[in-house]
Each structure stands twice: as C-alpha cells, then as structure tokens.
Write a structure and sequence with these properties.
The protein is an alpha/beta fold. It is built from twelve helices and 13 strands. The protein has helices at about 30-45, 60, 65-70, 80-85, 145-150, 165-175, 185-190, 220-225, 235-245, 245-260, 310-330, 335, and strands at about 20-25, 50-55, 90-95, 105-110, 120-125, 135-140, 155-160, 180-185, 200, 215-220, 270-280, 280-290, 295-305. Bound molecules: ligand PBG. It is an enzyme of class 2 (transferase).
C-alpha cells in the first residue's frame, strides 16, 4: 500500500483543477485519443488530479509506406517513449500490440483489462469470410492477417492498405470503395463505437490475433512509481498505475509477447498468439503462417499458475509458457515459413 499524499486526498471543495496536472502522452489519431481518454478519466478518478493530453506525432503517423516496409519495431511508440523520458509527459498510452517486446530502459508499463482481442471482417453487404465471392478484394496492412485470410480463402485477393481506422473502413464501405472488405481489430472499432460496420468477428482459430491485441499499455517512468527509501517519487500516480493493472490480462499478454520475443519476431511478422486465463490455468496458442497462405503451423500449451508464490514468479511462468510454445514452433521449422526477424524483405 502506498500512503496517499495530500494531492490525492479529496478535501471538501477541492476539484481536480487544484492539483498539478498529470500529462498524458498520446498519438493524435481518433483511436489513440479515445483510448488515451479512457485512461485519462481513470487516472483522474484515482488521483483526483486533472489529466492533460499531450499529442505526439510518431514515425508511424508521419510515414505513409506500407506497415511491413516501416519494419514494425516501435514506429508508433518511439516518439512517445522519448517524450516520457525527457519529461514532456508523465504517462504514455499505447496499443500493446504496437509495443516492441524489448523493454525500454527507465520505463515500465501496466495493462488494464483487455477488450475483445479478435479481428473483425468489415465487408460490404454483410458478407463473411465464407460468403465473400471468389476473387473478392480484402484489404489489410498486416502480414499476419493477410497470411491467415489467404490460408482460409486462397481464392481471395488480399490487398496491402494503410491508414487510420476511418480511412481503412472507407476503402470497403465508403462511397468510393475499391475493396470488398477490410480486416480491423475488434477492440479498435469497439472503442470508436463502430462495431456496426463488422460483418463477422473472426474466430481465433481462423485468424489468430496479434500478441497483445485489444490490450493497452500504460507506461510511466520507473523512478516515478518504484518504491525507494522514501516511497515512490510520485505516490498518487504510483498507486493509480498499480490499480490500473489487470492481472489476468498481464499474464496473457506476457505469454503472447514472449512467443514473439523468442521467435525474435516483430509486430509485422506473420505470427498470431492468443492466451487466456481460466481459473488457475494459463492457456496459450500461437500460429506462424506463410504470408502467401500456403502453409501455417500452430502450437499450444498450458501452465498451472500456483497462487501462493510471489507475483514475479507467476509472471516468469507466463513468460516460460510463451518461450516453450515458440521453441516448439521453431523446432517445427517456423523460420522456413516466414521471415521472423524484424528485417522485412523488399515488398513485391
Ligand atoms: N497498428 C494499429 C493498431 N494498433 C492497435 C489497434 C487496434 C486496437 C488494439 O488492438 O488494441 C490498431 C488498429 C487495427 O489493428 O485495426
């Protein structure tokens, strides 16, 4: 327990405006600001301090090349992390699936409860993966989605697209649509209030989600929240960050991200991983797919989480599950199917 500081005590007549604001760094897209707004409101409730959004442009927002050509490692997060480290903001909110698996020096993050991790097909006329006509054009910028869509429906024409959620939806559903469908994360659509455009939520056995999909990372400077001789440097923030952490989400995404880390794969690699906690069990399934859809391999595993050990021992068990599943995939020849490293080949 952290002792509340005067700042976090709500005294009669005190409003959030009375205390120093918490500056929350976010990308400027509609999805990013919506996600950040959710976290900002929670932080205001938990600390009694106002939260100010600081908009930061990331490389992923500036560059317009295909997602695969950007290389995938941290293009959406590096600028936010720099802003945190040089003090332009105190908290940064990321989509966890955009966060590289290599830890950032001096920073630490928690994961609030995850939303639906599945991908969603948004097709004209309510079409589904099964009912799209032969040769239909399906847009996605994700090699993981492309690989699995092609594997399920080799006859479809998968088209590489980029852009924010609205732009991508327009490609299939707008007045000038040039595609029959696009694939987007359910969580992003849900946060934007756009689940009406979904024609099918794709089962995780058909399209395995990106590691961490649907979850947010709320990142802070380690020094602000780590307990020192006099307690954390920012006690009310430390307490709030601690309360935002959702343990089952944390364990699931630890296992999923450990698959990616052990495969030395980036978020642009055709790798899916999905873990769930049910009772004392953590269950994980991961997929590596050839981008042309010709082949995919899948491995799963389960670990029983002992309740009477230290939290970091349980975290280690979640990571070990991911590593073990990844090693099975490597033993199966996963590297033959897909370029796993972040060095992305020239786009055709
Ligand atoms: N790289 C873009 C991105 N990062 C996170 C989400 C969706 C929200 C989430 O997965 O938490 C999206 C959009 C999409 O994939 O459709």
């Amino acid at each position: 327990m952290v002792t509340p500081t005067p700042l976090s005590v709500s005294t009669p007549g005190s409003t959030p405006g009375d205390a120093a604001p918490i500056r929350l760094g976010t990308r400027a897209s509609a999805l990013a600001t919506t996600q950040s707004g959710l976290v900002a409101r929670r932080l205001e409730e938990l600390t009694g301090r106002p939260v100010e959004l600081v908009r930061i442009r990331t490389e992923g927002d500036v560059r317009t090349g295909s997602l695969a050509s950007l290389g995938g490692t941290g293009v959406f997060v590096t600028a936010l992390r720099e802003a945190l480290l040089d003090g332009r903001c105190d908290v940064a909110v990321h989509s966890l699936k955009d966060l590289p698996t290599t830890p950032a020096e001096g920073l630490t993050f928690v994961t609030p409860e995850r939303a639906d991790p599945r991908d969603a097909l948004c097709a004209r006329d309510g079409l589904t993966l099964a009912t799209l006509p032969r040769g239909a054009r399906v847009g996605t910028g994700s090699p993981r989605r492309a690989a699995q869509i092609r594997s399920a429906r080799p006859d479809l024409d998968v088209v590489d697209i980029r852009g924010n959620v609205g732009t991508r939806l327009d490609r299939a559903l707008g007045p000038d649509a040039d595609l029959d469908a696009v694939v987007l994360a359910h969580a992003g659509l849900a946060r934007l209030g756009r689940t009406d455009v979904i024609s099918e939520v794709l089962d995780v056995d058909v399209v395995s989600p990106a590691p961490g999909q649907g979850a947010l990372a709320v990142e802070v400077r380690t020094t602000d929240i780590a307990a020192g001789p006099d307690g954390p440097r920012v006690p009310d923030l430390a307490e709030a960050i601690h309360l935002l952490d959702h343990r089952p989400t944390r364990l699931a995404v630890l296992a999923e991200r450990s698959v990616l880390a052990r495969l030395e794969a980036g978020c642009a690699a055709p790798v899916g991983a999905y873990a769930t906690v049910s009772g004392p069990a953590l269950e994980l399934r991961a997929v590596v797919a050839a981008v042309d859809g010709s082949e995919q391999m899948s491995r799963g595993g389960t670990v029983r989480l002992s309740q009477d050990v230290a939290p970091d021992v349980i975290d280690d068990a979640a990571r070990a599950l991911g590593v073990s599943v990844a090693e099975h995939l490597l033993a199966d020849g996963a590297e033959r199917l897909a370029p796993l490293s972040t060095a992305v080949p020239e786009k055709a």
